[in-house]
Amino acid sequence: MGIRNLALCLIQIPTGGKIPQISSWNRITVSSKPECPGTESFEPIEYAEKAYTLMKSSLEKYNPDTILIERQRYRSAGGSAIQEWTVRVNMLESMFHAVLHTLAMERGYKVDVHSVSPRKVARLWLANVQEKLTARETKVAKIAVADRILNGQTVKVDIVDQAKDIADSFQNGNSSLKKFDDLADSLLQGLGWWKWHITRSIMMEEILGWEEVTTPEKRTKIIKEGVAKKQSRRLKKTKDLVIA
Amino acid sequence: MGIRNLALCLIQIPTGGKIPQISSWNRITVSSKPECPGTESFEPIEYAEKAYTLMKSSLEKYNPDTILIERQRYRSAGGSAIQEWTVRVNMLESMFHAVLHTLAMERGYKVDVHSVSPRKVARLWLANVQEKLTARETKVAKIAVADRILNGQTVKVDIVDQAKDIADSFQNGNSSLKKFDDLADSLLQGLGWWKWHITRSIMMEEILGWEEVTTPEKRTKIIKEGVAKKQSRRLKKTKDLVIA
Predict the structure, then answer these.
(1) Which of A56, A83, A96 sits opposite B75 (nearest CB)?
(2) Are strands A5-13 and A238-243 parallel, antiparallel or unpaired?
(3) Which of A53, B40, B98, B135 shows the greatest Cβ crowding within 10 Å of its Cβ?
(4) Is pLDDT at B77 greater than 70 in this prediction?
């Protein structure tokens, strides 16, 4: 996610252990670079409008159950120019959260919003990389992981509808670092989230299943009901929108 | 304005050249320091809730025509700890703008939101100070200006209702730097805004009045109507809420 562009990825988590389906996957413009340098305004009033329009249209277009927003870093190594861009992208992230919460309160939308740490997601997908990577190397490595997913390795996903265009560009070797960085992030964050939830559900079942053995009959019944409820919740088909 | 506290000042600009009236003036808690250090969360999801509650209740309580929000700096000298707080207070500022814009769009509120540069406001009120002040000296100097205003010097204001409590604390010498810094800022930003608008209106009249002499009869009429319209707009009583 940046102040100029961000990626949106819509992941449908089907019921009954089927594979996730990516139906929409886009890189969209937040704010174009102006023709005359130095004429651009980064005033919060203008960005509030952009954030509102983007969140409102995303809710209306995708109607997601969950929205994952990439957590921005708040420390920047480097000079004051880098610091400025860090503050600006933090502004946009903050505004997305504020607009979504306000829309949820005002319109009664039932949407779960979460912040996703890109660092944790990178650790998940690049767990087998031993050496310390530079920022650029990490981007290249993440694009390679996304590419492997699209080729049916790593995890299986179903790419349908509009998302096919982006998947084709990835696989045709058109995956320039600049354009595909955010796209890869949105895919890996959404699928990372899904993997964590599967792992958590399995662990929950194991923990509760283990307790069943050691508890009296009545408690066992309650726990069994708890597991059943959690399973039915997990088995509900959901739509997750990732903003990265 | 900070992540812990901020000041709200409600200024009523009456019609017909009367003096501004301060009817509400408060320092409010955004987020208390937790008892156990290190347990605090600065996640955007939690701050989105705080920003929404604060803006919604301020709109409902004060019903302002204009809201002035103190513009936060985005460069921080100093170490990474200072940088973190700068990013956090920027987050809050961004969220206020985003919530207000969303509420305006969703509910049809007619409220003008502006960013006010604290640096320009300081230049206005401390124009006679020749030497370069440190951050701490600037705070002390601004509190002294607020104190002079409350004593009827500099500009005349009418302090009524709840705002009297704060004015009394200022004048009783209880104006500790920590507590009265934001309060002084909110007063000076609101009155600075009012002074700029008076100056602009006078200049507009002078410029348009000058054109009247040099233009043919028909254009004179249009300009006269323009002046009348501007005057009537300026003469409308308004309520300005300052967040600093």
Answers:
(1) A83
(2) antiparallel
(3) B98
(4) no
pLDDT per position as a tens digit, B175-214: 576 789 999 999 999 999 999 887 777 777 778 776 555 5
**What digits encode the pLDDT tens for the residues A38-61?**
888 889 999 999 999 999 999 999
Instruction: Judge: B90–A87 Cβ closer than 8 Å, yes or no.
Output: yes
- Looking at the DSSP assignment, which residues form a beta bridge with residue B28? B6
What percentage of chain A exceeds 70 in pLDDT? 84
A165: Cα within 13 Å, side-chain hemisphere: 7
Strand partners, B243: B8, B69
Residue A207: pLDDT band by 50, 70, 90 thresholds? confident
Q: Which tokens go with B212?
A: 């009247």
Tell which residue, B123, B124, B117, has the closest CA to residue B155: B124
- Chain A residues touching residue B69 (CB < 8 angstroms): 44
Distance, in Å, from the CA atom of B133 to the CA atom of B135, rounded to the nearest integer, reads 7
- Are β-strands A5-13 and A21-29 bridged in parallel, bridged antiparallel, or unpaired? antiparallel
DSSP for residue B132: P
More confident residue, A198 or B169: B169
Look up the pTM and report it.
Answer: 0.86
Interface of B with A in 22-81 (CB under 8 A): 43-45, 47-49, 51-52, 56, 69, 71, 74-76, 80
pLDDT-wise least confident of A37-41, A91-95, A190-194, B160-164: A37-41
